[in-house]
Amino acid sequence: MDFGFSPRASELQDRIRSFMDQHVLPAEAVYDRQLAEADDPHALPPVMAGLKEKARAEGLWNLFMAHGDWGAGLTNLEYAPLMELAGRSIIGPEVFNCSAPDTGNMELLALYGTPEQQERWLRPLLDAEIRSCFAMTEPEVASSDARNIRTRITRDGDSYVVNGRKWYTSGILDPDCELIILMGKTDPQAPTYRQQSMLLIPRDTPGITILRDLPMFGYTDRLGHGDVLFEDVRVPVANILGGEGEGFALAQGRLGPGRMHYAMRAVGFAERALQLMCERVTARTAFGGPLADRGVVREWIARSRIEIEQLRLLVLKSAWLMDTVGNAAARMEVAAIKVAALDVAHKVVDRAVQAHGAAGVSDDTVLARLYAITRALRIADGPDEVHLRTVARQELDKYATTRPTTGAA
């Protein structure tokens, strides 16, 4: 394995690090204040618009996109440390037009969209002229198993008609959201993994009702997490993405890189939390000495550093495998990093919260928000249990020929 970075990747790391330190991290408080003062909590704060313009002018834009001539053309291994650096701030990925759900949606359009679909949706997304959302999860079924999805996509002449309910449709409340990529069933009688399809739905199509904006551990996200009702929503047949019955395969193609991006960001979350913890315990005195001199605190710091280093190596290995043998061959590693990344990040954030005491559960630092995010992401994009199932299945497959055929323990 070669985890060495190309000259271009190293140069981009230096530029992203500098940009984060000089522009993004100092803007966090301004971003929060502008959101709090805005009439619409989902509107783009002016400071973010300025950061985006600056990042684009410096060529730090669409770094995630590796397909065709659409983006920077970086490998996963080159991109991984960049997203770690951006992940040190909750607002970081959006600055570089590398934030979910747009990244996954843009990859879908780049890989499977027709030239007409790409011209209408992909180009404005790459230019950050519009935003998008992804409607898959449903409130009435266990959506971690895509076979349970109930939303129907019915062919009617030259149109598809959609009926169903989706929730945690992240991004739909952003005023700039103009595209919904929806996953539903076109043929419930087809083979199990050929029942689902993906449809491109303009946000302003009649029949779409946002029932409520769902919080995440009490936090309202700027992009919004919509509980959305689709009633006789009609779009042209040309709006199918890929083709009928290809929804499940497309979803798997979207989720692989998406999980990689989550893991990359999680390393950044953990690094930020560890930095805050070290700064806090160095500056605070209790029971006759600095908190940093307490054995338990030093153990927190040491374990956090060890776990972050282990996680980073696993992420880089997974990125390297995706680049060299492909997403399918790296399936176990990609599943593993989704579990490991949020587990490590959540542990480190939890220790940092404890080190901060009351300040850790307040809004005076980013830690409470990171605590909520790292916990929620153990469910989003496939819960831990689904990924553990994948890892265990592939591990057990190695022993399939020697496994007892009867009830041996």
From TrEMBL:
Pfam families: Acyl-CoA_dh_1 (PF00441), Acyl-CoA_dh_M (PF02770), Acyl-CoA_dh_N (PF02771). Residues 133-233 form the Acyl-CoA oxidase/dehydrogenase middle domain. InterPro entries: Acyl-CoA_dehydrogenase, Acyl-CoA_Oxase/DH_mid-dom, Acyl-CoA_Oxase/DH_mid-dom_sf, AcylCo_DH-like_C, AcylCo_DH/oxidase_C, AcylCoA_DH/ox_N, AcylCoA_DH/ox_N_sf, AcylCoA_DH/oxidase_NM_dom_sf. Residues 245-394 form the Acyl-CoA dehydrogenase/oxidase C-terminal domain. Coiled coil: none annotated. Residues 9-128 form the Acyl-CoA dehydrogenase/oxidase N-terminal domain. It comes from the Bacteria. Its cofactor is FAD. One of its GO terms (cellular component) is cytoplasm. GO terms for biological process: fatty acid beta-oxidation using acyl-CoA dehydrogenase. Keywords: FAD, Flavoprotein, Oxidoreductase. One of its GO terms (molecular function) is acyl-CoA dehydrogenase activity. Homodimer. Belongs to the acyl-CoA dehydrogenase family. This is Acyl-CoA dehydrogenase.
